[in-house]
Amino acid sequence: MTLDEFVKAFAAEFDETPEDQFKADTEFKTLEEWGSLTALSIISMVDENMDKTITGADIRASKTIEDLYNLAESK
Fold first, then answer.
1. Torsion sign across C-alpha atoms 67, 4, 6, 25
2. The whole model's pTM is what?
3. Residues 6+ apart with CB under 8 A from 24
């Protein structure tokens, strides 16, 4: 999965936030719609699309979508 594909898949987990708000350098935790349920959706999306396992701690350690992508890729 490329970074661009990851950003698109990440954006798909949000219902109300416009897709154009999602870029590799987006600080996802600042998005109004971000919350614990979205975090669980992202963990599931990474597992399904990348066959990688990330944790809540991984999400907390990441600032941008690209940070999270790089962390997932390294697993």
1. positive
2. 0.94
3. 3, 7, 64, 65, 66, 69
The closest of 24, 27, 22 to 11, measured between CA atoms, is 22
Q: Write the DSSP symbol of residue 9.
A: H
Concatenated DSSP letters of 33-73: T-SHHHHHHHHHHHHHHH-----HHHHHH--SHHHHHHHHH
pLDDT tens for residues 21-75? Answer: 999 999 999 999 999 999 999 999 999 999 999 999 999 999 999 999 999 999 9
